[in-house]
Sequence to fold (358 residues):
Amino acid sequence: MDDPGNLLTPNDFRKAARQALERSAYDYFISGSDAQKLKRRNRAAWDALEIRHRVLVDVSKVDTSTELLGLKLPFPAMIAPMAYQRLAHPVGELATARASAASGVPLVVSTMANVALEEIAGVKRAPLWFQLYCHRDREITKDLIQRAEAAGYRALVVTVDAPVLGRRLADERNAFDLPKGLTRANLDRYAGSGSVASDGSELAELFRTRQDASLTWDDIDWIRSLTKLPVLLKGIVRGDDAKRAADAGCAGVIVSNHGGRQLDASIASARALPEVVAGVEDRIPVLVDGGIEWGADILRALALGAKAVLIGRPILWGLAVAGEAGVRRVLEIYQEDFTRATQLAGCASITDIDSDLL
Ligand SMILES: Cc1cc2nc3c(=O)[nH]c(=O)nc-3n(C[C@H](O)[C@H](O)[C@H](O)COP(=O)(O)O)c2cc1C
Fold:
């Protein structure tokens, strides 16, 4: 395996991870849905945003830290919720949580984790949020929320862009399934929550049979009624939905198209972000993910009004290459890159990053 010290960018980590991973696992991680065009458009939309950098500003000291819903972030980024991390590395989500604790970058733990949420919460000083998929069986949903709150998670992220699973052709072709020995650990305790038979992608079949495609705004009220935790909605791309989330008492929204894994025809995150920012009128924070590859993309997101970004696949590449150390290095690369981009844009603090840069 390459020395992680020689891997300088998220894309270097991706190439190394490709060597390290089973083909079907790499395909599961990297894939978008259908023709996979949105993944490219996510990237292209960030690239299209040109920064009008300021000059002759003293940027010898830069403070990149920020606060978000009671958490202190070393720089405006978090780790996106991603399923099945023991496919990337045997220690899986525990390694990601340890890297989160070491770096201070908060982690959003997926409902579909391979390690139980309580065990992940046992990692000292890891700042954690819990991502919720709403099950058709409301008792399971309710129990997951109560377990997350009891275990010390600091917020609940309800994913709302997946009433059904997007079609990932590689997973169908590979008949993708969890290898023996790996489970959806958060769900193990519920009756009838094991594998489902499928000729194609097991995950797709699981969504068809267990997830709730009938979820509406009323259910968001119900979820909020069950917990004191702040509730954020993930997968918002419209101003009217963002406004409705704020009206409904949500604590934040995440502009996301699931990394191009749901509706391939959906709008690129960077193009949706301004409308969502306008929709919430500063009432609640707006986060964004999808194709964040460079520090300059974080700068661009903040210039458009986001409070922070979520980093997705590159975390899995770090995990696959070197476990906890790999995730730490990937996070360091983002932080260094963001700091440099901020300095080069002529900003001494992240409060200097605003729409005037675009
Ligand atoms: C392998 C993989 C698994 C994911 N699992 C989940 C999940 O369980 N819940 C969720 O809300 N989003 C999930 N996502 C979407 C991410 O949270 C995030 O929106 C997306 O990956 C961001 O795009 P990026 O990978 O281009 O950074 C997953 C994404 C990937 C790549």
